[in-house]
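Whiteboard transcription, Tuesday session. T.W. wrote the C-alpha cells on the left side:
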C-alpha cells in the first residue's frame, strides 16, 4: 500500500477532530478560515482543478506575495497528485517564463500585483488564473467526493534555489521527503502542530516559507498566518500580527530578524507569544543572538537547504551549543564534515558538509551541500560559509562570514556583506558592502576601507582586511530574501572607497 504522506488527507483528518479551530489567516486582508472551512475550500478547488484538466503530474505554478492561496492550491493539487511550483513575484517575467518552461508548468496562478507578469506568461501558452478567479472557482464548484489520493514517493513540489551562480535551479521534492522534513522539525523544535500558530514572513517560494513548519501545522489542525511578504510586508505589520494572532513559531532570515528587533525597540510591541523564533537562511551571529535575547526572544538556529526540505541541523536555546554554532543534526539526518572525499575532517579542520536521510532528496546517498564547516572538540558544528563564496587572496582563503561578523562589531556598522573581487596582483581582494549604523551615518561619506581595516587590525588576519567598500542604505537580496553576493559584487566593483 502507498504510504500516506498526503497533506490533503491530513487536513481532512484534522477537520474531523477540530472542525471549528482557526486554520488560516490572511494578515493582510484579515480573512480567516476554520479547519472545516479550509477543507471545504480545498475540496471545492480540487473539483475545479479536475474539471480544468489538472491531474496527476500536472505542474501548476503559483506567483504572488505570501497568501493562504499558496497553501490551498498545494493541498488541492495534492488531492489529485498534481505538482505545485511556487515562484517568487520578485523575479523578472523572462526568468519566470524560463523557470515555468524548465519544469513543464501548464498553469500559473497569481495575485493581482503579478497580473502583468502572468499575462506575459500566458503568451507562452500557459493557462492562467488569478487568486480572485480561484475564489470564484471555489464558490461555483461542488466539493470533491472521492477521497484524496494517497501520496508517497510521488512528486509534490518543485522549488527553485537561489543558485550559487545566480541561475535558479529546480529541486524536486516528493511528499515523502517533505513529510520527513516536517517530522525532523517537530522533534527538533519540540512543537505540537495542533496547538501551534505559525507566522509566514519568509517568501513561500522559499522552503522555509512553503514547507518548514507551516505546511505541517496547517494540515494537522494548527493555525497558519500569512504575512504578505514580499508584497505588503512591513516590520510594524509583522510585529502587530505576532501580538494580535499570538504567533508562537516563525522562520526568518537574520536580516529580517534584525529589522524586526530594531522596529520593536523603536515602537514596542508584544513578542511574548513568539516562543520559537527559527533563524536560518544565513549564519546567526552571536551578536544577533544577544540582540534577540535582550528583547525576550530565545533564538533557535536552523541550517538546511531546499534539498533537505529545510532540515539539516538545529541549535536550540537549551542545548548548550556555543554562540553561533549550527548545533547538531536533526534526528533523521546523517551528517559528515569531509575535508576530502576520502577523509572526514578532524576537530577544527574545515570541510564540506555532507548529509543523507529520508528527508534529503538524495535519500541514502550522501548529498554534497557545498557548505563548509568545522567541528569543535565537543562535536558542535560551526558554519564557515559557502564553498563558492570563499575568497582566495594571494593563496590565503578568506571566509566572508568571518569578516562580516567582525565588521558588525564596529559602532559605525549596522550590517555588511563581504565578497571577493578579481585582482591582477592578488587573484582576489576582500570587498564589502557596508550599511552604516545610526551613529555611522554622519560619517558615511568619509567611510573608507583603510579605516575599517585599521579598526579591526586585532580581529582579522592581514589577508582578511577589507580593501574596497561601498556604503549602501540596505543590502541587496535575492528573491528568497537572502543577501545577494552577486549584486553586492557589482555594486562594490564600481566603488572608489
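and on the right, the sequence the group agreed on:
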Amino acid at each position: 500500500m502507498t504510504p500516506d504522506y498526503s497533506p490533503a488527507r491530513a487536513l481532512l483528518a484534522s477537520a474531523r477532530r477540530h472542525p471549528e479551530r482557526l486554520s488560516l489567516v490572511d494578515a493582510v486582508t484579515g480573512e480567516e478560515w476554520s479547519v472545516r472551512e479550509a477543507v471545504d475550500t480545498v475540496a471545492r478547488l480540487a473539483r475545479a482543478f479536475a474539471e480544468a484538466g489538472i491531474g496527476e503530474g500536472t505542474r501548476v505554478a503559483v506567483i504572488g506575495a505570501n497568501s493562504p492561496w499558496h497553501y490551498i492550491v498545494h493541498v488541492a493539487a495534492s488531492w489529485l497528485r498534481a505538482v505545485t511550483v511556487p515562484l517568487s513575484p520578485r523575479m523578472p517575467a523572462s526568468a519566470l517564463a524560463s523557470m515555468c518552461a524548465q519544469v513543464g508548468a501548464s498553469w500559473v496562478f497569481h495575485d493581482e500585483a503579478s497580473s502583468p507578469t502572468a499575462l506575459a506568461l500566458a503568451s507562452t501558452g500557459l493557462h492562467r488564473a488569478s487568486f480572485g478567479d480561484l475564489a470564484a472557482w471555489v464558490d461555483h464548484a461542488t466539493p470533491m467526493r472521492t477521497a484524496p489520493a494517497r501520496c508517497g514517493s510521488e512528486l509534490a513540489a518543485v522549488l527553485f534555489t537561489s543558485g550559487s551562480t545566480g541561475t535558479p535551479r529546480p529541486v524536486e521534492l516528493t511528499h515523502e521527503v517533505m513529510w520527513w522534513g516536517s517530522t525532523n522539525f517537530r522533534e527538533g523544535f519540540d512543537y505540537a502542530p495542533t496547538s501551534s500558530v505559525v507566522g509566514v514572513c519568509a517568501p513561500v517560494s522559499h522552503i522555509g516559507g512553503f514547507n518548514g513548519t507551516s505546511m505541517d501545522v496547517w494540515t494537522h489542525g494548527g493555525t497558519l498566518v500569512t504575512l504578505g511578504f514580499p508584497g505588503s510586508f512591513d516590520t510594524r505589520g509583522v510585529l502587530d500580527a505576532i501580538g494580535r494572532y499570538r504567533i508562537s513559531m516563525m522562520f526568518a532570515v537574520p536580516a529580517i530578524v534584525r529589522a524586526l528587533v530594531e522596529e520593536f525597540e523603536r515602537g514596542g510591541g508584544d513578542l511574548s507569544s513568539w516562543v520559537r523564533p527559527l533563524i536560518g537562511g544565513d549564519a546567526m551571529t552571536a551578536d544577533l543572538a544577544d540582540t534577540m535575547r535582550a528583547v525576550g526572544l530565545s533564538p533557535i538556529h536552523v541550517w538546511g537547504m531546499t534539498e533537505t526540505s529545510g532540515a539539516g541541523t538545529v541549535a536550540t536555546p537549551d542545548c548548550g551549543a556555543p554562540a553561533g554554532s549550527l548545533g547538531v543534526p536533526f534526528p533523521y539526518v546523517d551528517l559528515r564534515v569531509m575535508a576530502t572525499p576520502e577523509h572526514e575532517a578532524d576537530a577544527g579542520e574545515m570541510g564540506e558538509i555532507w548529509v543523507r536521510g529520508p528527508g534529503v532528496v538524495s535519500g541514502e546517498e550522501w548529498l554534497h551541500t557545498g557548505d563548509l564547516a568545522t567541528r569543535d572538540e565537543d562535536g558542535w558544528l560551526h558554519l564557515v560559509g559557502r564553498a563558492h563564496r570563499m575568497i582566495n587572496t594571494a593563496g590565503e582563503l578568506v571566509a566572508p562570514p568571518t569578516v562580516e561578523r567582525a565588521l558588525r562589531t564596529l559602532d559605525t556598522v549596522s550590517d555588511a556583506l563581504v565578497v571577493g573581487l578579481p585582482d591582477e596582483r592578488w587573484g582576489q581582494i576582500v570587498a564589502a558592502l557596508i550599511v552604516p549604523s545610526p551613529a555611522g551615518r554622519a560619517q558615511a561619506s568619509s567611510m573608507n576601507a583603510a579605516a575599517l581595516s585599521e579598526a579591526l587590525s586585532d580581529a582579522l588576519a592581514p589577508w582578511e582586511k577589507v580593501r574596497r567598500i561601498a556604503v549602501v542604505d540596505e543590502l541587496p537580496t535575492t528573491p528568497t530574501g537572502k543577501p545577494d553576493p552577486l549584486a553586492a559584487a557589482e555594486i562594490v566593483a564600481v566603488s572608489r572607497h
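Someone added at the bottom: The chain has a mean pLDDT of 92.
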